[in-house]
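Weekly modeling sync, notes
Attendees: AB, CL, MP (scribe)

Item 1: holo prediction request
CL wants a bound-state model with adenosine-5'-diphosphate before deciding which constructs to order. AB pointed out that an apo prediction alone won't tell us much about the pocket. Agreed to run with the ligand included and paste results into these notes for async review.

Input as submitted:
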Amino acid sequence: MTAKKQKRRIAFVGSECYPFIKTGGLGDVMYALPRALVSEGCEVRVILPLYACIPRKYKEQLKYKGSFMMDLTMEGRTFFVGIMEMSLDGVTYDFVENREFFDWGNPYTGLWEDIPKYCFFSKAALAIMNYLEWVPEIIHCHDWQAALLPIYLRRKFQNTPVGKARSVLTIHNLRFQGICSIQHLKYWSGLPDDLFDYPILKYNEDEADMFKGGLAFADKITTVSETYAEEIQTPAFGENLDGHLRYHCPKLCGIVNGIDVEQWNPAADQLLAETYTVEDVLDKKKANKLALQEKLGLDPDPDKMILGLISRLTDQKGLDLVDAVFPQLVDGNTQVVVLGTGDPRYENAFRYFESENKGSVCAYISYNEALAHQIYAGADALLVPSLFEPCGLTQLIAMRYGTVPIVRETGGLKDTVLPYQGDWTEGNGFTFEQYSANRLLDAINNAKTVYFTDRWHWDEIVQRNMQKDVSWEASAKKYMALYDEIAAWEN
Ligand code: ADP
């Protein structure tokens, strides 16, 4: 008789998770991947900071699971660690409570405070697993905020129950690394001097880098698309860690993100004017477009093409290209809708374009989850011209909602959007390679030409995109296989 495998136990540790707290794609992944792993038969706990800004309706559902004092810093100062827990759809969420660190409102408040905050968080996550006597085989850490965990695991918790776990560190965006003075990190992390050397935490003569150290100690490194896994090993994309990543490349791989197809489901999305499926998308998109135009004060006309943009307004997202071509985007038949916040330079540029093109352009400078859903449903095309894009979720959501992505061929955009080249049987969107405003304009003009002169083929792309598998299922299986490589099954 063969022994029955136990459920794989996985801990997820990261700084944000929808629906509690989300500022970008990391929040979506921290929500969706654990659920997909539960569907594959894993037991998953997600460990998060208990930020003051988490909506009250969730805080009210939390149950107190215990508390203890934990030492941190070079001096061994002790800090309170509270554990508040809730379950949602088969996933357990453990929130780390500490008012000194997490009562500041927004999750990220500036690196000077964020470094101590996430040193505390990474260490507390391990201490919590021991306290709850819940020892996972895999601890899956996300981005720089959780990057010290693999180091604490090997250098502070190695002789405790959780010490037998293996660690995976996922790079969602290498641009943010948690870099500060060596002194600051040494003090707060309480980690020994020998770790502050070039192969591990040292970034330059004066500075230390949390991500760099975590990448050295993690048992596996993943990033969120195959192309980005290659790109970050080059100076152009490596953010000064390309050499470090080339050295660690035997343990590095790319696994593309999916989206939660229940969270993003046009057939059941209550935020839409009209829900729809691939059968009736062509009619219902018109109804959603009209509702969007009315809501945003645009001329109500379902025959106009709407170009959408939903994004953090930062240089990463290729907005200087959009800025440069904006005057050429709006014509009598095209409208533009921008939803985003970020760099004032872009916020003001988009506000200006709105004021110059009343009725044809809307710049909604804010973070608004409901409006994002309505734009995915009501727009015809979505612009994602990123300078670099580890994976990108907006193009996946757009495809799920029958909206055609116009993307630059980089990172996950390259891996998920097959260019339409006139062959009616394949292609998901319009793409360009060289980072230039003219190439972006060419791609947009190609899209407009198909939309206005070859609608039958456009509609084919819309329907093909809605049928494309953008779910987590295939990627969750790849993560499972990766976990199997490093953690033995215990029967
Ligand atoms: P990143 O993580 O780099 O910001 P992604 O494409 O991976 O970019 O994920 C962006 C996520 O954030 C998507 O779910 C997108 O819909 C959402 N989003 C971005 N900006 C806004 C906004 N202003 N309002 C609502 N949702 C937004």
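Recorded for review: The chain has two domains: 8-258+473-486, 281-467.
Action items: CL to compare against the apo run; MP to circulate these notes.
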